[in-house]
Amino acid sequence: MAQVPVSTDVLTRAIRQRVENYYDAHGLCCSEAILFVINKGLGGGLNDDMVRQLGAGFCGGMGGGEGVCGALAGAVAALGLILGPGRRHGLTKSKMRLASKQLHDSFLEALRSTSCFDLSAPYAGEPKARMKNCKSITGLGAELCAKTIFSFRPKVALSADIEFLNRNDSKAQAVMQKIGAFF
User: Can you tell me whether residue 154 is helix, strand or coil?
Assistant: First the structure.
């Protein structure tokens, strides 16, 4: 079945919403949610377990160390997954560095910091507020990643899995998917 072309702005919004949904419903951390959705939505080619393994160490600013925000680290990793040298739509190493810097600088401009500690400090002692803040930052990281991908390679949008990106899982659906994976 032929896919109707969708604008990159529409895809970018869908990616952000799906990442925020994955963060909530599937209980993934920032980096895992971004890597999972970008991989599946834009054809990164990794299986689900590989994505979770790859993203796990970035959570909480590098393993809970509150260094570089996991949403930024996950977004840069996802950028490399889609545009890295050797990929179908891959960039040269110098252009990949440029794309990564563009993503980093956009994140820094939007939030005034790339540090998990700085971004989370206002919510110390308020776990629900911190999670809400992290969800928003995770969505922003995914949005900036998608914008960067599409600015360097707009044709990546043609192979997007729009059905996956437009889905919205509930927590119950996420649990059922996990249970189904065991059988």
Answer: helix
